[in-house]
Structures are given as C-alpha cells and as structure tokens.
Amino acid sequence: MLRYSLKRLLSLGVSLLAASAVIFLAIEVVPGDPASYMLGINAQPDTIAALRAELGLNVSAFERYITWVTGMLTGDFGISYTYRTPVVDMIGDRILISLPLAIYALTLSTLIAFPAGILAASKRGSATDVSIMGATQLGVAIPNFWFAMLLVVFFAINLRWFSAGGFPGWDKGFFVSMKALTLPAIALALPQASILARVMRSALIDTMNEDFIRTARAKGLTKRQALWRHALRNAMIPVLTIIGLQFSFLMAGAIIIENVFFLPGLGRLVFQSISQRDLIVVESVVMLLVFAVVVVTFIVDIAYAAVDPRLRGRS
Amino acid sequence: MKHLSIKLAMASALAITAGMASAETKDITIGMQLEPPHLDPTGAAAGAIDSVVYANIFEGLTRFDASGAILPALAESWTISDDGLTYTFSLRAGVKFHDGTSMDSEDVKFSLDRARAEESTNAQKALFTGIDTVEAVDATTVRITLSAPNGAFLFNLAWGDAVIVAPESIDNAKTNPIGTGPFVFTNWVQGDNITITKNADYWGTPAKLDSATFKFISDPVAAFAAVMAEDVDAFPGYPAPENLPQFEADPRFQVLVGSTEGETILAINNKLPPFDDVKVREAVAHAIDRQAIIDGAMFGLGTPIGTHFAPHNPDYVDLTAQSAYDPELSKSLLAEAGYPDGFTTTLKLPPPSYARRGGEIIAAQLREVGINVEISNLEWAQWLEQVFRGYDFGLTIVSHTEPMDIGIYARPDYYFQYDSAVFQALMVGLNAATDADDRTEILQAAQRMIADDYVNGYLFQLASTTVANANIVGLWQNAPTQATDLTAVYWND
Amino acid sequence: MQFVKAALRNRSFMIGASLAAIFIGAALISFLWTPFDVTKLDIPNKLQKPSGLHWFGTDHFGRDIFSMIMVGARTSIAVAVVAVGIGIILGVPLGLAAAARKDSLLDEIIMRTNDLVFAFPALLIAIMITAVFGPSAINAIIAIGIFNIPVFARLTRGAALSLWTRDFVLSARVAGKNATRISFEHILPNILNLLIVQGSIQFSLGILAEAGLSYVGLGAQPPIPSWGRMLAESQTMISFAPHLAIFPGMAIVLTVLGLNLMGDGLRDLLDPRLRRSRT
Lengths: 315, 493, 279
What we know:
The complex is a heterotrimer of chains A (315), B (493) and C (279).
Chain A: H1 2-29, H2 34-39, H3 45-55, H4 61-73, H5 87-122, H6 127-141, H7 144-158, H8 174-208, H9 211-218, H10 223-253, H11 255-260, H12 266-276, H13 279-307
Chain B: H1 2-22, E1 27-32, H2 47-53, E2 62-64, E3 70-72, E4 75-80, E5 86-91, H3 105-116, E6 131-138, E7 141-146, H4 153-157, E8 183-189, E9 193-198, E10 211-216, H5 220-228, E11 234-236, H6 244-249, E12 253-268, H7 278-287, H8 290-298, E13 303-304, H9 327-336, E14 343-349, H10 353-368, E15 371-377, H11 380-389, E16 395-400, H12 421-432, H13 436-452, E17 457-469, E18 472-473, E19 490-491
Parallel strand pairs in B: 1-10, 14-15, 14-16
Antiparallel strand pairs in B: 2-3, 4-5, 5-7, 6-7, 8-9, 9-10, 11-17, 12-16, 12-17, 13-17, 18-19
Chain C: H1 2-9, H2 11-30, H3 65-100, H4 105-119, H5 122-133, H6 137-164, H7 167-174, H8 179-215, H9 227-234, H10 243-270, H11 272-278
Helix pairs in contact in C: 2-3, 2-10, 3-4, 3-6, 3-8, 3-10, 4-6, 5-6, 6-8, 7-8, 8-9, 8-10, 9-10, 10-11
C-alpha cells in the first residue's frame, strides 16, 4: 500500500510539472501584448515599450517560467499585468465564490440524484423508473447556459424572487450571499444531477446482480434490505469517482454560468484575463485548476486501492 | 413583561425604518460595462478609468461640462500671451488633496512634467508634446510656454489624462488614487465594484451624494437584469439599445439619449490593394445603407455622418449625400476600377455590439455589390495587435470617442494609413489658428477633404444611452468626454 | 436482418433515431433548399413572431429562424462528427498500442498523457486555442477533437486488455502474428460495438460542446448560422422576443436527446453482456 501510494505520488509530481510546462508554453504562444491592450489605441510606441519594461515582459521566456514555478511553490503567483495586484490575492478573492458555488451545486446535485437513482434502481422497469430515466435524459440534453437563461427570465425578471446575478459579498451576510448563488447553483446542478442519477442507478443495478448480493438474498434478506445494507456501499465507489470529477468540472466549467450571472469567480477571471492578455493570471488559474483535478484523482485512486487490494497491482 | 418589551421593540423598529424611508437617498449604485484596469488616468489609461475618476476624484486645470464646454477647474483664470505661446494660469487657493496635502503650482508642474517626460506612460502623451517649459512662478501661479501656438491647448488640459496629481501620492495612484475632487476613493473589490465617498473638505460646492458604488457588469443580459431588478440605480452607456423601449415604457425608469464624441466608422486600409484606389473606396461608401445599420445594429439610435466629425458640433458639414446608398453606382465604380466581379477581403471586428452587429449588416450589403468579406470577431487585445498595430486587415469597424480628433487623418502611420500631404498641411494650419472663424474654415475644409477622398466609410455618431431610476437628477445626457460626473447628481425622492 | 428487427422493436433506439434523423435530415436538405436565404438581411421585418410566412419567426436582422435552424444543424453536426472522428482515428490506435504493450513505458506514457488531458479544464483550453488561432468552426473542431482522443484511447485500451487473454487471440499469437496485426485483425473488430456506442455518446456531447463554444463566440463565425450563437444573440431580447431563444434551445435539446436515446438503444442491441444492467 505504501509503495503504491509513493508510486502514485511520484506520478502526481511528474504530471504537475509536465502540466506547468505545457500551460506556460501554450500561453506564451498566445499573441497579443498586455501593454498595448492597457494603453489603448492612442498610445505611442515608446510609451508601450516603457510599460513593457515596467511589467517585466522583456526577460526571456525560460527565466519567466522558472520564476513562475519556483514562485508557485512558495505561494507567490506573481503580479497581475492588468490590475497590478498579487495574483494570489485575486485568486483568493475569486475562490471564495467559486468554491462555495461548486459545493452548493454539488450538494444540490447529490440531494436530487441520490434519491432519484436509488428509487429508479429499486423499482427497476416500473413506470417510476422510466419517468425518472426520461427526466434524466432530458436533464443531460439541456445546455446549462440555456437553462440559466430560462431561470433568470422566470425567477429573476418575472417573479423577482431572486436578483438576476451579482454577488453582494460574504460580509453582507451568509443568507444573502447564498441566495445570490442559488440560481447559478441550480443551473449547474441540473445536468450534473442527471448524470449522477444515471450513474447511481446503473451502479446499484450492477451491484445488485453481483454474487454476494445473491448470497445475501439466499440468506433471507429482502430485496430492499440487500440494497440498503450491502449494494449501496459498493455502488458508492463509482458514484464517488463521478462526484470527484464533477467537483473539478464545477470549479473550472462554471465559466459560462459565472458570466451569465456576473459572479466574480475563477471562471470569469480567466475569461477576462485571456481577453486582456493578462498571461500571469491565466497561467496561474489554469495551473490551480489542473492541480485540483490531479489531486482529486490521486485521492480517489488511493481510496480505491485502500478499499480494493486488487487494484494496487495496476501501473 | 415579555409581551410588552416585544411590542416596544417592534414599535421602535417600525419607527426607525419609517424614519429611514422618509430621509432622502444619499447613495447611488452605477452600472458600468468595463472595469478599469487601475485608477490612474495619467498613466496607461483606459476609458473606463475616466468613467470612475473624472471630475469625481481627480480634477485638472480645466474641465468639460455636460455640454462639452471648457470650464475653469483648478485654474481659476488664465491669460494667454499675444503670440499664443505663453499661458499664465491663476490657481485656486486653499485646495487640498484627499490626503491633506495642499495643491499648489509645484503639483501642477509635477503633473505636466511627468506627463511629457521621456519615460512617461501617459496614454495621451501627444497632448503634452507641444509644451516647452512649465514654470511655478509662485504658489498659485503657473506659466506654461508652448513651442508653437496651439488653439486646442485649453481643450487638451480638460482631458482626463491631464488631471493634477501629487508627487506624495502618485506612486500608489493606480490602486489608491488621491486627487482634489468632491469624492474620495474608498474601496475596490476587484472584479465587482468600486466605492467612492463624499469629500467633506472639498474646495468647491460639495457633492449632494454621500457615496457612490460603481458595479461592473460586462454582459448586456446581466445589465438588463440588473436594471430591471433595481440592483443598479443608473447605467450610463447601457450596452443593449434593444431594451430601451421597455425601460421607457416603465415608470420606474428614465432613459437619457444624447450625443457622444464617437464617430463610428468603417475603417478602410488605404494602403492595401484594391483599397488604394479611391474609386474602390467610393464604391464601398455607396454600397452602405447607413439607416439600415442604425436600425439593425443600434435599434434606431445614432445620427448618420458623412465625414469624421460630430454632427452636434456647430462646425459640422453634412456630407452624407456624397456617400448615399446607391448599390448600382457602387457596382459600376467597381467595374471601372477593374473589379466587375468584385473581390474578397477581411472585416475584423472588435467586441462592441455596434461593431459586431454593424459588421454583419455591412457584410451583407457589400455582398450585394460583389465584395465578399470574411468576418473575424476579435477581442480588443487581438484587434490592437492585428488591426491597429499590424495593419493586417481590409476593413474594420470602430468608434473614435475622443473629441475633436479629425487630426488623426494627418498621421500616415495611423491604422487606416491615409497619407495626404495636403491634409497634413491643413492640420498644421489648424493647430496654429486661434481665431474662431479661421478654425471653422479650416475644419470644414478638412471634413470635405476626407469625404472627397473617401478615406473611410463614415457610418454614424454613437448615441449616449443612459438608463436610470426616474428619481435621479443631474446625470449627463451627452457624453462630451468619457466620464460619469456625479458632482451635481442627487435623488429627488 | 435480425438486427434490424431487434432495432425496430427497441423503443429507445427508435425514438432516438427518429429525433436524430429529423435534424440530420434538416441539415442535408438545407444544402438544396431552405424556405429563406439565411445570408439576406431584411431589417424592416425584424423580430416577427412565428407566422404562416415565417414558421419560427424572424430574428433581429429579419432572417428566417426556421431556415437558420436548418443551416445551423449543418454546423453542429459537422463539427461534432469531425471532432468524434479525430477522437476515434487518433485515440483508438493509441489505445490498441497501449493494450498491446501493457505496463511498458509506451503504455505508461499514453495513459499518463491521457490523464493529463483529462485534467485540463476543457472549455478553458478551447478558449485558449481559439485565442491563438482565431475563432472558427475548424478550431472548435480541433478543440473538441483533442478531448475526444483520451476518451477513445482509454475505452479501447480497457476493452482490448480483456480481449488479449482470450483464446482466439492466443491462437493468433501462436500462429506468429505480430501485435499490430493482431490488434487490427482480431481485437478491433470485436470492440467495434463499444466504439459505435461510445461514438454516439461522444457525438451528442460534441453537439453540446459546439453549442457552448458558439455561445461564447468561439465557434462558427457569421454569417454561418450556429445554434449556440443564436442563443447568445437572443439573450437581450428574450423578454420581448422569446421565440429567438426557444427554437435554437429546443433544437439542441432534441438533437442531443435523440442521439443519447439512440446510443442507449444501440448499447442494448450490440452488447448482450450489458443488456442485463440496462433494462
């Protein structure tokens, strides 16, 4: 177990290093000069040159890469070209919105998906099952930005129950802030819940067909008892993997939703930084998101291996 | 006992809220499309910076008012020498910066010298290059000597890039701007909002508002939702003209439509064949139906222009008939120029909706006469790189919002690359002219020249659209410069 | 023949295939005929509600929405098909190679690169690609295609691994065939069913991805109609012209739904081992 963990840890480190190189190279290739962007259409060439020097854009790419990577290891992500503030502060502010939003959406998603998936699996083949499966098919097919548009029109503009977006700030109160995150979380949660419900259902059904369940039934447990006491626990493994993946998706993939609801989160930060050619911010946020995914995968792998010794032999 | 105290608490709560409701509202939330990258209008400035700080936080020697006229600001009065080379400004006494330090001629000298220095990052450095020397004669007198007379000098000093800053606070101006205006910078939540509060020690008439919060909402849909939900009280430069009829019909809101200094043009790369042939450029001009563009892209808002000049300006000449919509004439001109079957070119469009929507409409109109355009929707950074600095385009659409900027046609290396010695001579004459009639004559000749040469396709003057709560008084209807002047704004409720 | 009969009886497949056929059919017909020309603007007739003349109404430039949906189907389907094609053409050989040389350095590199690509936030990379190369349908295809490769590589490797231990493969090895020949002659035909099923799922994901990229302006550019872009343009007008948003949205939902149902049906029909858990 220890050997496996160490092997995976080494693999993780290599992955992160490779990712940082790929990210840096990719972003270096992006054309467009942050200095020109900031100065606008009336600036002279010498003004632009002066600003480039001020921003530190004139050193070699390799030097900038090394500075960036060593900086990240000590928690210093550099200074944003556009805002001239430390990137780590900007990320910190934005995470305070993206992270709670992701958790909120994930919670909603799980609260909807679990009962739906379990119900559908336990009543397999019935009208309930078919209608739940039909609903999830629809949920998976709806683009989340379209759903967000419809939510805003209905709940914010027509009914005025929610504001159409924006974030008042945690200092204005927990419930006020959570209310602002509600429509976005619902928009994000819908397709995720649909996927999760389907995975839950099929994982349960697969498990219910396993030998050990048959043994349990043979020993006298009812179908329902078998489901709750044994099948569910085993079915959780693929379900937890999906939840882990969804969490990383929610952190990064909420870009469009953050734009629709004008939430100052990580996704919108990256979008704006790409348009502004604020390369340092883009590199750092993408790196952070990759880091989050890689770490979550690592944790899931270790958990799997701890639970199921058969898995440790894989490369 | 418990019963009584609850009732008492409720009664007092009611009294307090009733009391609050009857007091006049003193705060305002302003929606803004673009977030400023920082807050120093004199260093690497973007228009969004002026929208927050101009007239509110920073002031210059002179300033614009709502109609575009030049008024004294930090300079109480001035005299100009007969040869037009020396300006002597008399500064107001007792003016203090927000950090308590006093504003005097040393600060004026510092600001102007900094703007025109070799390593200056001022985005409008060209405004200051004509200055030869700046002399602080005494605490309230500044003498500026120009190297050549410049009829627009007082006008230039009113720009946001020419505001007066202090050496004590300039280092942090980008994140903590210290000016002399009626509002003080208070807080900036990156990506969300900026707050400014009333300056109790202001030298002039104090502001009527206690505080103002600028909220950044780039998405037109979000802007609509924010206004409808009353999350913002006013939105100057509201980005989606299609919603204005709805706001007008709603008694909660007022809609202010006015003029801006934004000439929206279809810029043509004058050095790129076949656009180097004036016949081809004329063909492009006649292929365009301005009214269709105004109706389709701007939902009817905007004034057609026939040259690069603002129609509300008294010196404007209406030359729209010279480039009237005439697709048949367009086709025959193309045939004459050697392109009977038309040709293909690129149309690169920056983000604003006047460009994107206008671009689609123009592309369809050009296709009718045989000119096939390949549309590229670019972000500002790409547009600057490819079009503005790289000259890599055939056609583009952009709005030039600086006031009185016909002088850009005298710069042969400006992105549309129009190089006419005659026009350049005209501009030299304009700079030297200080007499109003002389200036009018030259300006009108200039307008005719660039229309005759069909340098660009002149589309329309951008309208200023502001949506606000019906109870707000004092917002600018026109936008003679980029600014959200809150100095005289108040709630009438 | 037996397959066709089974297919006709499978409800999921039939509903799905019918829905998908409507849009694929619309896309094909659009090459020959659309009720109106989508490149002609008719501004005086903008924002008309659905009527006998314009079945789905007109947009803010006066263009007929029904015609735009038909041509937009072309865009979505073309992008999705080519992107999935890239995923299969590049991903399947990688997966086969990795399985053939299990636990070797090649396998390790392929799988780690796979994981790495999976780790990158897809939309972000798509935005960066289009920032570098410019927004267009082709770059949308490349961006979506890149993320299809690891999906097919992983699927192929997993399925191939379980086949390498089977008797018919062992006999081929005894007969002296090398790994490449075995992969293509014996393994590949047996995983085709899985690839078809996964292909239809990736196709529907591709449609959603193209809609998302077009929505943020990074897909096909004007004047080529695209469902995602139609949705983006409709947003400011949704309160007084809802038909602008309803029809493109429904088109996306129904196409994706159709493809998903078809995929489920195909899974039932093609892989008997899975049928147990699907019904």
